[in-house]
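Example for tutorial group B:
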């Protein structure tokens, strides 16, 4: 009667049953093993000491080959007794493999094409987005038409001289504003140097001082407040003279 292995779910084999199990495992794996590895891979169904004896016996029978490296013996199935496929079956399997590879290549190309089409569809505006863009375009068109209305009624346009005067006034008063802001910032820094940020904010509120907001900072960065080229400043100066 077979004894129990360390693992209660594995039955310990003996005799011919154990030898058949070892040989069947060796043929299935068809790679070199040591006795310890085979016993461990069989989950202890064949004890190590019995596995060593079985391997030696199978080597003597010519079922497996034994190779010694140092003090360790390795065993592998005798390749002369390994069943091989006929040449016709090998060729059929190669042809089937080639066919599968071709099908995979065709499917990969199809998947790539579908992914590109999906990306294109995702980038296309939806019906609601198109409606919003159309509404924005209509508002812009209406605003432009309203700006053209005075021209259509024959209302005189601003002359070049008036535009030059407006530009000159803009440069003059903006420069003055920049200068005064610099003076204010200098004196304000001196006046609030000893105050905490909270006290400085309270003082500014009590005095009714309004500092530049985000919209003013954004305006300063825009083309309206861009530095005027030197040649333009010279021309404006001459016009004022």
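The residue assignment follows.
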């Amino acid at each position: 009667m077979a004894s129990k292995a360390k693992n209660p779910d594995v039955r310990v084999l003996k005799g011919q049953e154990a030898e058949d199990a070892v040989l069947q495992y060796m043929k299935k794996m068809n790679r070199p093993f040591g006795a310890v590895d085979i016993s461990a891979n069989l989950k202890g169904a064949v004890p190590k000491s019995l596995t060593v004896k079985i391997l030696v016996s199978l080597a003597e029978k010519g079922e497996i080959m034994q190779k010694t490296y140092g003090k360790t013996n390795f065993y592998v199935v005798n390749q002369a007794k390994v069943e091989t496929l006929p040449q016709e079956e090998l060729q059929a399997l190669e042809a089937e493999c080639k066919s599968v590879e071709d099908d995979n290549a065709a499917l990969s190309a199809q998947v790539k094409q579908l992914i590109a089409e999906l990306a294109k569809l995702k980038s296309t505006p939806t019906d609601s987005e198109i409606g919003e863009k159309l509404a924005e375009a209509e508002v812009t068109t209406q605003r432009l038409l309203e700006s053209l209305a005075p021209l259509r009624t024959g209302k005189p346009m601003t002359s070049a001289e008036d535009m030059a005067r407006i530009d000159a006034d803009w440069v003059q008063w903006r420069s003055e504003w920049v200068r005064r802001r610099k003076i204010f910032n200098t004196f304000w820094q001196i006046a609030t140097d000893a105050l905490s940020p909270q006290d400085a904010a309270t003082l500014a509120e009590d005095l009714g001082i309004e500092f530049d907001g985000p919209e003013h900072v954004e305006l300063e960065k825009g083309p309206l407040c861009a530095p005027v080229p030197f040649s333009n400043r010279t021309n404006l100066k001459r016009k004022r003279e």
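The longest strand covers residues 64-69. Compare this with the pattern of hydrophobic and polar residues in the output above.
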